[in-house]
Design a protein that fits this description.
It is a single chain. Helix content is 17%, strand content 23%. It is α/β, with parallel strands linked by helices. The protein has one domain: Glucose Oxidase, domain 1 (3-Layer(bba) Sandwich), CATH 3.50.30. Helix 6 links the parallel strand 9 and strand 10. Helix 5 packs parallel to helix 6.
């Protein structure tokens, strides 16, 4: 098959016994990043009057469970419409840090955390997307708790430390990161170090993931369904884990 994407080059086999949906339902009351547009649904057609049901919706490109594209930080790099399909089917490993985040909402993943996890499981393989299970997915129904702002408006939620992300990229060759909070960078990291490190290499950045408690530490394959928005800085996604 000729064209933009040579599909025959990307044949992959996925062995699985279970499919887990890692996606939150999008609704007007879900947590949104400060300054992002509100999520709105507007009826366009109703069955009683028009014979069918249809709505118009409006939301930010980084609303709900979403992926960030490189051009969200680097204007000259690709937007979400340019992602190769093969880059959206990826192996995943999940690191559970709930014991740390339960006592420190500002906790960030350390290099020691990674090495301890590898002692218990296996070395993180190249091109793997590392998912961080912080427990924040359980706060999703409460926008205030999920973003956890203080009186000065600073957000308090866990994430990846920039140094750890650099280690994972340079020493493990990972393909990206994902998390169940609203940012792969901890809420206090206003430099967005992890986002910038991953996206500078056109890697995967997934935020607001759900159901990470159902994933094994290793052995999952993610299929990430993007919306190909022209020059998009990212898009809401459907993320399915084949386990």
């Amino acid at each position: 098959m000729d064209g933009k994407y040579p599909w025959h080059k990307y044949m992959k086999t996925i062995n699985y016994s279970q499919i887990i949906d890692l996606t939150h339902v999008i609704a007007p009351n879900i947590p949104i990043w400060p300054g992002d547009p509100n999520i709105e649904f507007e009826p366009v057609a109703e069955i009683a009057e028009d014979g069918y049901y249809l709505r118009r919706f409006s939301l930010g490109e980084h609303s709900g469970t979403h992926i960030n594209a490189p051009n969200s930080f680097y204007p000259d790099k690709e937007g979400i419409d340019n992602y190769d399909p093969s880059s959206l089917v990826v192996a995943a490993s999940a690191i559970d840090v709930r014991n740390k985040t339960a006592v420190n909402p500002d906790y960030v993943l350390t290099i020691d955390d990674v090495k301890e996890w590898e002692k218990q499981h296996t070395l993180i393989a190249a091109e793997t997307v590392v998912l961080l299970y912080t427990g924040w997915q359980e706060k999703w129904s409460d926008r205030l708790s999920f973003l956890n702002p203080d009186k000065d408006g600073k957000l308090h939620f866990p994430g990846f430390a920039g140094d750890t992300t650099k280690f994972l990229l340079e020493e493990r060759g990972i393909g990206g990161v994902g998390i169940d909070t609203h940012g792969v960078d901890g809420g206090l990291d206003e430099t967005f170090a992890t986002n910038k490190l991953i996206l500078s290499r056109s890697g995967i950045v997934l935020e607001n993931l759900n159901n990470l408690h159902l994933l094994p530490a290793t052995g999952a394959t993610l299929a990430i369904g993007i919306i190909r928005l022209k020059s998009g800085s990212g898009s809401p996604v459907s993320v399915l884990a084949f386990v």
